[in-house]
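Researcher: We're reviewing a set of sequences before deciding which ones to prioritize for further study. For each one, I'd like a predicted 3D structure that I can look through quickly. This is Acyl-CoA synthetase. If possible, include the structure in token form so it fits the rest of the review sheet.
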Amino acid sequence: MSSLFPALTGGRTDRLALRFGDRSLTYGDLAAASGTLAARIGGAGRVAVWATPTLETAVAVVAALEAGIAAVPLNPKSGEKELGHILSDSAPSLVLAAPGDELPAPLGDLDRRDVDVRATGSRPDEHAGEADPALIVYTSGTTGPPKGAVLPRRAITATLDALADAWQWTGEDVLVHGLPLFHVHGLVLGTLGPLRRGGSVRHLGRFSTEGVTRELNDGATMLFGVPTMYHRIAQALPDDPELAKALGRARLLVSGSAALPVHDHERIAAATGRRVIERYGMTETLMNTSVRADGEPRAGTVGVPLPGVELRLVEEDGAPITSYDGETVGEIQVRGTNLFTEYLNRPDATATAFTADGWFRTGDMAVRDPDGYVRIVGRKATDLIKSGGYKIGAGEIENALLEHPGVREAAVTGEPDADLGERIVAWIVPTDPQSPPGADELADHVARRLAPHKRPRVVHYLDTLPRNDMGKIMKRALNG
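Model: Here's the predicted structure for Acyl-CoA synthetase, in token form for your review sheet.
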């Protein structure tokens, strides 16, 4: 079979592959270190990776893939109960970590192998098949213990090659980001993506606008981030002309993992002349859609289906929506080689996730424009509000609220209402806590922009919104 990373066995060995802070590896260095580790762990079955934002994590995952072994990335911020569940569920035979890392108690009984990023030795031949597991990535567990999504090697190659097509991504690109490496965004797209292309990745360690400015001024061509990062960029731009110039030099600014508010899109575009593009994916599906580099960067949308991905919207009864008008809300279902194969040890959950003819039920609600662009309006479980006979997506109301100058952050949920079925509830972090906008003012603001039936009936004021590591608002925490 073809290699996941052709640049490791051919091409320029002196080209920079990875840089984390002041530590770096060329392709020659990476080939030696990952090949040596792959030979050491061959036949291990399954390995856990203590996924800190370091060279060691990248080398460990590449080595596991070269050895044909499934890697289980572990979030270093996970609590002991969650770690214990992941380890008992995935049953790795050993854990890979950076020398000197202190591992928590649940990992104490596992055979540990320290990753030496300067090792040299023989390389094993890649012998795994396209359908063999590459990664087992655990979902966030919002509805119970985290489930392990088994991602086959073909899913990784399909997603990365489809993104290369959509983004005109080549080995000449240099990617900068500060994303965690235990998640699909930072690990698969942000680390394995550049390595598959033969390009470079510069990891910031911890995100900062200063780091973004420095790297884009020093030849980086692409920036990946989550909405929280782009929000900080948008806030910093008025007082930071160097940041605006640096962003203007980037070939591609990409946001993902959650919706980027339209307000932040517009602030960044006005200051830099560059549009942030969004893409849409999940742990289980990797990437499904994206705004293309050669397409229209339409704020508030996640673009069109990627090559090789089938996407449809369905009604509540499962009937496909056949006419796309930019208004009708349906659940996204997808098919393609980018999908996971199963939830580990959960045949019941796997069966429930798919339709009889192989479509994956994403649980995400969206509308689709006549030209194919997809606009996500929220999660079926938390963001679809049925009020007064209407199906309303929380996302568009949140975007409208964020256009009010008195609103710094916003989240929208539904709560039971005897008359309407559900009423719309807004959770607001005001720009000025001493003088927040009134509930009636916000309701009128939304009604003017969208429609009267989409106005919030209840407004709560908060100091901050609860978010997870990827910047997603945890709405279940809001609803108690």
